[in-house]
Specification:
- The chain is α+β, with helices and mostly antiparallel strands and 67 residues long.
- It has a single domain, classed as Double Stranded RNA Binding Domain.
- 24% of the residues lie in helices and 18% in strands.
- It has a three-stranded antiparallel β-sheet, covered by helices on one side.
- The protein is elongated, with a radius of gyration of 16 Å.
Length: 67
């Protein structure tokens, strides 16, 4: 799956910030563009990682593949 990432360089510090518009709150940063890209990849993976879910007795947990 491919996501768009907005990468910005801070003119004062020279560091980079990255954000994924499709995943609200998913953002990262790095001292170099390469570091910011790698950190953003990790942030997206963590954002999308499944978490433990408590289900009611009459519920099922299903998986859906997109893309």
């Amino acid at each position: 799956m491919t996501f768009r990432v907005i990468l910005e360089r801070d003119p004062d510090t020279g560091d980079y910030s990255a954000a994924c518009p499709e995943l609200p709150g998913c953002a990262s940063a790095g001292e170099t563009e390469e570091e910011a890209r790698a950190n953003m990849r990790e942030a997206i993976e963590l954002y999308l990682a499944p978490e433990e879910v408590d289900l009611p007795e009459n519920a099922k947990l299903l998986e859906v593949t997109v893309g």
